[in-house]
Design brief:
The protein has five helices and 16 strands. The protein is an alpha+beta fold. The protein has four domains: about 35 residues; about 60 residues, 2-Layer Sandwich (Trypsin Inhibitor V, Chain A); about 70 residues, Trypsin Inhibitor V, Chain A (2-Layer Sandwich); about 80 residues, 2-Layer Sandwich (Trypsin Inhibitor V, Chain A). It has a four-stranded mixed beta sheet.
């Protein structure tokens, strides 16, 4: 194409484009606003917050307005499905047919339950707290785990969607060492007690009276415990026998007896 023809084509294009652009601008910024102001009626936006979505839509349509659900939000203090915000605001004067954007309450926020299996109690509490959930221990159960307080079961299951602020019930593994320790008794201090008082203390602590040794003493009251085996504070199994050494005021010296009834 020669330069002359190219110039003629460009000129013709400008003759078409420029009037078209001018017409669009004139329509948008002069004719349409003028038409709306002269021929489109105005209405006052009614208050629809607090209504259900259906109630709000019906009221807006009755006032020649177009309801549009633009978004949802979480408000645990309001009913699910309630309109909690509107735009334009209530009492604002707008043209008929104007869109009114609504925000509907979706209820309390929800979260997905994480997988807590074999996590420690402390880790499970920390993870749940981070997403707004609480942990409750339902029970303990024996397992093959080497350590205790590991999550063996949980309810609801992982992946379940629940309301924020809810709780997860778990079953934890028992600590074998703690369980074994719970079967042990700490030996009480019997020194200074009378023989009868020492026997009663043994029974009260699930221990049995073993052998008895008599020893002469010029200072202690007769029938007073001056030694014991096992020693005070030692951990022993339930109903373990305890040997007592008590004072005697005669000259018979040291004598050992094995009472016929060790538990009396």
């Amino acid at each position: 194409m020669s330069p002359e023809k190219r110039k003629q084509l460009l000129t013709k294009s400008l003759y078409i484009i420029v009037p078209a652009v001018f017409a669009v601008l004139l329509l948008n910024y002069l004719i349409m606003p003028l038409y709306v102001s002269l021929f489109v009626s105005e209405v006052r936006v009614p208050k629809v917050t607090g209504m259900t979505a259906d109630q709000a839509s019906n009221l807006l349509e009755e006032n020649d307005l177009e309801p549009v659900v633009a978004d949802t939000a979480n408000d645990e203090n309001k009913a699910v499905g309630e309109i909690i915000n509107q735009r334009p605001a209530a009492d604002k004067v707008v043209k008929s047919g104007r869109r009114v954007y609504l925000v509907v309450n979706a209820g309390p926020p929800t979260v997905f339950v994480p997988n807590l299996y074999k996590k420690s109690y402390a880790d499970a509490v920390f993870e749940l707290k981070g997403i707004g959930l609480e942990l409750r221990v339902a029970s303990y159960r024996e397992s093959n785990e080497k350590t205790g307080n590991l999550v063996l079961e949980q309810n609801p299951a992982s992946g379940t969607k629940i309301t924020k602020g809810g709780f997860i019930s778990v079953v934890l593994s028992k600590d074998k060492q703690e369980e074994e320790d719970s079967l042990l008794i700490e030996m009480p201090n019997l020194v200074g007690l009378t023989l009868n008082a020492a026997k009663q203390t043994l029974r009260d602590n699930s221990l049995s009276f073993g052998s008895l040794i008599f020893r002469k003493s010029n200072t202690a009251t007769p029938n007073t415990v001056i030694e014991q085996n096992p020693l005070p504070g030692k951990k022993v199994k339930k109903w373990s026998p305890v040997r007592l050494t008590i004072t005697k005021d005669d000259d018979s010296g040291v004598k050992e007896e094995n009472p016929g009834d060790h538990n009396q």
